[in-house]
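hey so i finally got around to running the thing on that chain from the lab meeting. sorry it took forever, my laptop kept dying and i had to restart like 3 times. anyway pasting the input first so we r on the same page abt which one it is
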Amino acid sequence: MRPGVARAGGLFFMISYDFPFTNDNATLYLLTTVTRCPVWRRGAAVCALLASLGLAAPVLALDEARLATRLEQQPLPSVYRWLQRQPKPAMAVEAARYHQWLGQIAMRLGDAAAAVEHFEAAVLAYPYALGARLELALAYAELGNPEAARASLRALHAYRGGAELPPEAADTLDWLEQRLEQQPAPASSQDAVENTFTLAQGFDSNANLGSRHRSIPLNLFGLIPDEAVLADASRAQASHFTRLAATTRLPIGELVESDHAALDDWQLLGGLGAQEYHDLDRLQRRDAYLGAAWQSPRRHERLTSLLQYQHVEGIGTAWYLDADYRWLVRNHWLLQLGGQWQQEPTGRNSLRVTGGVWREWQGMLLWGQASWQERRGRPAGDTWRWRLGGQGPTWLAGPLEATAYAHLEQRGDTENYNFAFFGNTQRRETTTTLGVHTRLPLQSRLELGMDARWERTKANLALFEADRWSLEASLRWRW
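ok and heres what got predicted. didnt touch it at all, straight out
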């Protein structure tokens, strides 16, 4: 135990969710802000705020009076930006306090990922900043990462030694530990085995992705304008459908008896699926996949490898081999790098490289992806794509959850699509997608889902311009 910790009691527990000044109006402001938080965040914020009332703090070189004034007069985002511009103190304890202030404001702004980064910096600057370790655990729990929260609490107990905690801080610690006991156990336990079965019924207004035009203009060999009337099979065809899907996820440590703890980080993945269009005599789909996934103990990295099979009646069979690596950087950005080998129904092989980035911001999930597909022997050449998307905050109405999303995708080929019919024209498409997903738990292992989706594709070749909307209701059983 470090000398001085026991004597000072809560000396190294820096103020949690409160700021270093005594002002009844400011405290009232913080309390009213807490009441607007979601239930889980509100519980963490209230407990941490109560814990702050009995915690002492060391004297810092930072101008606390200026910070107090700004907190009273300016909105929190402005204070956050101002504090980030201030010079970081050179003394370890003061630097820890500085980062903890930033983390507290980030939590107040609802950015738990940024708070984790600041609290990590605080405990790195001064490992005995026990209050920062408690807040780090709260922030990880807020992010839905119970394993990392438990790791932070273990570090807190290790650095705490036999020191007594202030009563409010001890209550917060007990509350969080009880909360974490209710979270799913680590991946090495039997509870990590998950199987699902989904039965869905729906309607697709354009199951074959046909053109919305009855006739399309042609440019024969780039010289002769003409027009062609499309056959029904090339135009949009609607159909009701039934979809079945079964998946399994099983820790490899459950299958192989071994003392190697590293096996607990690996999972076996598998799935089967079928989709039947009742109003069409083709496009019936069968697919399957088998693979493995590795996830780091702190859930910052994930590697997935899958072998996939897909057969679409009237089109043919395709095989895919995917590798996907995702890395959580500074608890803010999720980066993706992936590759895919594909044997297309035509028998040609292709290779695709994909890169992506995800960012959670103000309760929304924003992301972007770009890919290049090398398709040797294809007359239209290679294909490039980029996608931008966003998913809104979850809307709650009792047990019902609803989330809206939007995607924008653009794709193009590197060579003329078909010189004989369209002349010197390379295919270009832009697809806009809007949708809403709802989820209603019926029992602990049974849930009802509803998806509504709308798409519009604009293209420089009228053959590929399409409108599409779909509705799907599903029952999903987990065991």
